[in-house]
Amino acid sequence: MTTLLLADGETTAHALTAALKLGGEVHMLRLADCPPLAEPLADLIVALAPAYDAIVAPATSTAKNVLPRVAALLDVMQVSEVIEVVSPDIFRRPTYAGNAIETVQSGDGRKVITVRASAFAATQLDGIAVIAPPPSADPGLSRFVSEAAEKSDRPELGSAKIVVSGGRAFGSKEQFDALLVPLAAKLNAAIGASRAAVDAGYAANDLQVGQTGKIVAPDLYIAVGISGAIQHLAGMKESKVIVAINSDPSAPIFGVADFGLVGDLFTIVPELTEKL
Amino acid sequence: MKILVAVKRVVDANFRVRVKSDGSGVELDNVKMSMNPFDEIAVEEAVRLKEKGIATEIVAVSIGPAKAEDTLRQALAMGADRAILVVHDGRAEPLGIAKTLAAIARAEAPDLLLLGKQAIDDDSNQTGQMLAALLGRGQATFASKIEIANGNATVAREVDGGQQTLELTLPAVVTVDLRLNTPRFASLPNIIKARAKPLTKTTPAEFGVDLAPRLTVLKVEEPPVRQAGVIVGSVTELVDKLRNQARVLP
Ligand SMILES: Cc1cc2nc3c(=O)[nH]c(=O)nc-3n(C[C@H](O)[C@H](O)[C@H](O)COP(=O)(O)OP(=O)(O)OC[C@H]3O[C@@H](n4cnc5c(N)ncnc54)[C@H](O)[C@@H]3O)c2cc1C
């Protein structure tokens, strides 16, 4: 058994834990060393595939983009967002926004897997053999136009120990920033947001937590002015400790919160920031 | 320009599914079914491209049970011109669906293939990428903006760390994200008109596609339930609990 691990950012260390559970050797290909476009990148990974029994990657946006393309070229059904490796061919994965956990057995000879990083502890990458990407030709089907990086001095959402998330209740980007940034700074926390807050432009799109955004499981998750829709809960309900601040005592978020505080966020958040 | 848009019939996003007591799957009897929300966004985008005079024909395709005709009728009511239903009962996986869509695409020769980025039932996020691979075409996933000009699609994508813009040579596959648009509600006259729009029924066998799943579902379980905790009375109490009980703050 030899596994190819696609290294892509901080969550690679968590995906390594899953890759090691498959048994056997793990080699690492750094996506940073490879062409970024999906078409040449998939061709490059497919060229490496014959030497491997499994291809594993953390479920980052780059891996989610390229790995199904690789799987189809290899005629393999990918197993997405694995939360447990039961055996080298049996995996557990969430479906229906995490409301039904499937245990699946893959009948494909070669396994193609993305890993939900929040479900695995991190393993040191030291000592893992890094392989050089083979030369690849760009089929010229797509071209890079621009990249608008969201600059933030906050810790990365996917790996932060503490996350403070804001919802629609903030009412404006100005209030979102004025209240949440000082709280996050005090806690050295990453900032997250509900879909409603992102849609309204209070926060950048890559800060959306939920079924169709980022999946996080920090030690402490503070949800402020977020109702707790199933799609939001899907992205944060594995957090160790959850705090909810909401003016509506019947908000569903209180159903998963370890500590709830009912009240107006516009008075609670500044007071909390001050008392920390 | 011709657009092919793929739609899936799924459990409604507002419905919380229950796992069957025998662990064989989720309860689907008497459950509200709808078009996958991401696919609605894909249909809406296709219709807007037609309204702008860029697209000339929109073909909606679904692979699923006979009831998926409802989903296709909704796409027709939103503005698709005709529909193809590939009748298939039982579980199907992204790889098999992508193979079926690829066979239809070879016959229909669309310039743009629009899909939702993921289905909210199996949450796989694979079909569009697989379809692009099988057709040997370019792909742009997680689209928040699409512009068509001079035989190219310029697509803004939502990625980790911000936004990325790609230019694709058409034909190409684009999977859409939540912020691309807000889908319209079909008007009553359009719902009535949709009943008369052409809908062809076919089977996977007609395309020689094997939809047999590669993954065997051994069991389906409810996730562990999280117990609701306590409501605290003040910020001071909250800080105290976080420090001294939960020990998550210094
Ligand atoms: C296909 C699909 C995918 C989705 N994916 C996601 C996803 O990935 N992530 C996600 O988050 N959502 C997702 N959603 C959206 C989700 O269903 C909810 O609409 C969204 O999470 C609601 O955001 P919210 O809690 O900020 O807003 P609301 O539901 O409007 O809640 C606002 C909350 O703020 C409280 N409030 C108001 N004023 C105050 C105040 N002054 N002080 C304190 N509290 C106050 C209210 O009581 C309320 O509970 C998805 C939906 C669909 C259909």
From TrEMBL, chain A:
Cofactor binding description: Binds 1 FAD per dimer.
Domain Electron transfer flavoprotein alpha/beta-subunit N-terminal: 2-148
A Pfam family that the UniProt record links to this protein: ETF_alpha
Organism of this sequence: Devosia nanyangense
Lineage: Bacteria, Pseudomonadati, Pseudomonadota, Alphaproteobacteria, Hyphomicrobiales
Spans traversing the lipid bilayer: none
GO BP field: fatty acid beta-oxidation using acyl-CoA dehydrogenase
Required cofactor names: FAD
Binding of FAD, residues: 168, 194-195, 208-212, 225-232, 246
Top-rank taxon, per record: Bacteria
Keyword annotations of the record: Electron transport, FAD, Flavoprotein, Transport
Family: Belongs to the ETF alpha-subunit/FixB family.
Designated name of the protein: Electron transfer flavoprotein subunit alpha
PROSITE patterns, per the entry: ETF_ALPHA
TrEMBL record, chain B:
Subunit organization: Heterodimer of an alpha and a beta subunit.
Annotated GO MF terms: electron transfer activity
SUPFAM superfamilies: Adenine nucleotide alpha hydrolases-like
GO aspect biological process, one term: carboxylic acid catabolic process
Organism: Devosia nanyangense
Ranges of residues in domain Electron transfer flavoprotein alpha/beta-subunit N-terminal: 23-211
Keywords: Electron transport, Transport
Domain of life, source organism: Bacteria
Necessary cofactors: AMP
Protein name per its UniProtKB record: Electron transfer flavoprotein subunit beta
Presence of keyword Electron transport: yes
